[in-house]
Amino acid sequence: MTRLLFLNFIRSKGLHWGLGLLFFTGLLGINTGRQFLDKYQENVKLTAKVQEESIENNVKNHPQELGLLLYYVKFGLVNEMPNLAGLSIGQRDINPSVQSVNIRYLEEQKYNTDLINPLYSLLGNLDFSFVLIYFFPLIIIAFCFSIISEEKEDGTWSLILSQSENPQKMLRMKLFIRFLSVLAVLLLLFSIAKVYLDIPLDAAFSAFILVSMLYILFWFSLGWLVASFQKTSSQNAVILVFSWVLLAIVIPAIFTAVINYKLPVSETFKTLIDGREGYHAQWDKPKEETLQKFYDHYPQFSEYKLPPGDFNWLWYYAMQQSGDDMASEASKNLQEKLRQREAFSSTVGTIFPSMHTGITMSNLSKSGLKNYLDFGDELVKFHEKKRLYFYPKIFSEASASNENWKSFKLEYFNEKSNINWFQILLPLLLASLVGFIWAKRNVRSLI
């Protein structure tokens, strides 16, 4: 019986087209990831080269005046990208993975990024996670919508009842064969991605594979559940397509609208305005007032006094610090709002398999909002470290030529992996079990 069902399935006209489409789009997604990883590596190499050349040229042109040299020189921090990000690009295409900053006013520099075509941003990337979340369910729907109804509509159900000792087992075998065919394509794509993207077989990649398998299992459970209500093939197809539209498109769109309403991030503009106001307003204030604020922030530098003259670097960098100090409250509120949005998304997303799968894949590949926020925190520490190192040298008028500039290379931030297996696997597993258990009760009425 199993062999007959398998032969009958592989002879189906739509099988080869469906599996072929999954395989082809999956390859496109993997290749998109490869191109994205290559671009990232190219940007890192280019940033390292530009930083080295910039330091060399500025030291040559400003060998004595360190304050002027550091006005121009930028130091790069790289948000390390695992090769797994080639399967789920997430927000890496809109948030910079490499940022170069000087020791001046930071808040304005934090949001500097590449110019991106707005249409390209709207369309997004056809990466592997997109293919899995949106294309795989459609093929599964095509395989499952008539798995029971076709037997009745073709007039073979009465024959099955009379000749089969266990018709339910026969139907379950039909479903299992379809599941194995889609699973085979999925695992083949993962095998190709493992080699082509050079992804290490670590815990993150293992979790990524398991989440993908449970996601397609959920859609098979949903297809089996809808088929078990014993409606016509056309009705099943409409219900399943409607479910796909609801789970993959409508609910995420509604959720985005809700989160934008509940947690608006108006602080973005306020951060920029406050920072610029805090910086530019110092031109019209007494230098002593600006310096006192600087000493309050950095009491360890109070030994450096204001030298005579209209301009000096102690006052100038104190003025730059005023910009960051003025914007600090708005910046803190902005980061807190973004953290709340990220936590709210993760919590609500567990209810909806498509959202949960997308968020989980982004987190596993370190390409989600959490990674971007953690990188932003590290950038603040990186910038502060450079300030604390150079401020005493600038204020004591040390010579730029005495510094070992070759030691200033790109620095790297690598987000620590913290995989909560229970949290990422249980929602999909429970959703699948509910579908199969409910369907099992319905299928009993077929006999």
Summed up, the helix count is 17
Beta-strand content: under 5%
> Which regions have little confidence, pLDDT < 50, spanning 5+ residues?
115-123
**End-to-end CA span:** 19 Å
For the sheet with most strands, the description reads: 3 strands, mixed
- The total beta strand count reads 3
Structure notes:
With 447 residues, the chain is an all-alpha fold. Helix content is 70%, strand content 3%. It is built from 17 helices and three strands. A three-stranded mixed beta sheet has the order 2-1-3, with helices on both faces. Helix 6 runs parallel beside helix 10 (203-228), helix 10 (203-228) packs parallel to helix 17 (421-443) and helix 14 (313-349) runs antiparallel to helix 15 (353-364). The longest helix has 49 residues, at 13-61. It is elongated, with a radius of gyration of 29 Å. The model is unreliable at 115-123 (pLDDT under 50).
Architecture blueprint of SSEs:
Blueprint: H1 2-10, H2 13-61, H3 66-72, E1 75-79, E2 98-101, H4 107-110, H5 118-123, H6 128-144, H7 149-153, H8 157-163, H9 167-196, H10 203-228, H11 233-262, H12 267-280, H13 287-297, H14 313-349, H15 353-364, H16 369-395, E3 411-413, H17 421-443
Parallel strand pairs: 1-3
Antiparallel strand pairs: 1-2
Helix pairs in contact: 1-9, 2-6, 2-9, 6-9, 6-10, 6-11, 9-10, 10-11, 10-15, 10-17, 12-14, 13-14, 14-15, 14-16, 15-17
